[in-house]
Specification:
Layout: E1 2-5, E2 11-16, E3 21-28, H1 42-49, H2 59-65, E4 72-77, E5 82-89, H3 93-106, H4 111-129, H5 132-144, H6 158-163, H7 166-176, E6 182-188, H8 192-206
Parallel strand pairs: 2-6
Antiparallel strand pairs: 1-2, 3-5, 3-6, 4-5
Length: about 210
């Protein structure tokens, strides 16, 4: 395995595998604990809405982009991080990696798409409330982390999610989606020095030095 930190401050790790399938993930070090000054659940809502359009791709294009390659694109949010990840054939690794960075740095949060995704998140909150195990776990964490930034549930509440605006999402991303808070990891059947060079070139392209 090779790991390091780019000149922009973005940490990375690459590892060679003997499989035809490649995996890459972009982890942003912000989650529920970083929501001070925002409605509860904004980190999770941000994760959802990153997929609703970028400066170069519509939500429909993003949805089918890796599907057409036989790959998979997904994401999740925890109390401490947002993770975007993709699984593709190694030949398509570059496309997948560029897409993850595009989602993290070029999301536009269009109003119409935000309202669509708000409905999805509100349904998710309801489904959690209808699941006793999930509800009990959220309540337990609320008690365990009472009076700390980890107290609130990852999904937020119906009331808090309804308060989130596109401008809040843009501000949250501008504040937290920065190289110093990012970690990029890759596992693929590619020689590690070559893979490291490709990763550093991609980071330079996304975050040009001096800008």
């Amino acid at each position: 395995m090779r790991s390091g930190t780019s000149p922009q401050g973005l940490r990375y790790a690459v590892r060679r595998s003997g499989r035809a399938v490649a995996f890459c993930a972009l982890t942003i070090g912000c989650g529920t604990r970083d929501e001070q000054g925002y409605p509860a659940g904004i980190a999770h809502f941000t994760e959802h809405t990153l997929f609703r359009g970028t400066r170069r791709k519509s939500a429909a294009v993003i949805s089918g982009y890796l599907d057409r390659l036989g790959g998979e694109l997904n994401a999740y949010t925890t109390k401490e991080e947002i993770v975007l990840h993709a699984t593709v054939l190694k030949e398509d690794l570059g496309k997948a990696a560029r897409l993850l960075f595009e989602l993290a740095t070029e999301a536009t949060f269009p109003d119409r798409e935000i309202e669509t995704e708000r409905g999805v998140v509100l349904d998710e909150i309801i489904s959690y409330k209808d699941n006793p195990a999930e509800d009990v776990y959220d309540r337990f964490e609320g008690l365990l982390f009472a009076d700390t930034p980890l107290e609130t549930p990852i999904l937020g509440t119906a009331a808090s999610v309804k308060k989130i605006t596109p401008e809040m999402l843009r501000r949250f991303v501008a504040q937290h989606f920065v190289p110093a808070k990012m970690v990029f990891t890759v596992v693929a059947d590619i020689e590690e020095k070559k893979l490291e060079k490709q990763v550093l070139n991609l980071i330079d392209h996304v975050f040009p030095q001096g800008n």
